[in-house]
Specification:
The protein contains 5 helices and 3 strands; from the N terminus they run H-H-E-H-H-E-E-H. The protein is an alpha+beta fold. Helix 3 packs across helix 4. It is elongated. About 15% of the residues are buried.
């Protein structure tokens, strides 16, 4: 890449930019975590798998409200669901975007 202005000796080497698909995924994930309750649910599911009823009790929310947030997080690819018997359990997805967001939240807790 040739830049119009050369400010650094290694301006021809711009290899630190994020890949476009990664930035789209992270941007979408930030959008989906824009609700405080949804962010809390994601954080909870980063630490343990849980069912809707228990998430609702932990979050002091109704089950339909929790289900709404879970659906959005699942569509964003941040959580996954697995049926165990009659119950559906949710957990944070094991992928780069979830890991990235987890680390951001973790670092933010220490500010």
């Amino acid at each position: 890449m040739k830049l119009p202005h050369k400010h650094y000796k290694d301006d021809d080497k711009i290899d630190f930019l994020l890949e476009e698909d990664m930035t789209e995924n992270i941007s979408r994930a930030f959008k989906h975590l824009g609700d405080p309750k949804r962010l809390q649910i994601f954080w909870l599911l980063c630490h343990r798998k849980e069912c809707v009823i228990n998430i609702a009790a932990i979050m002091d929310m109704s089950s339909p409200a929790v289900s709404h947030h879970l659906r959005i997080l699942k569509l964003a690819g941040l959580i996954s669901a697995k049926r165990e018997g009659k119950e559906m359990f949710y957990k944070a997805e094991d992928n780069k975007v979830s890991e990235f967001l987890y680390n951001i939240i973790l670092k933010s807790k220490n500010l």
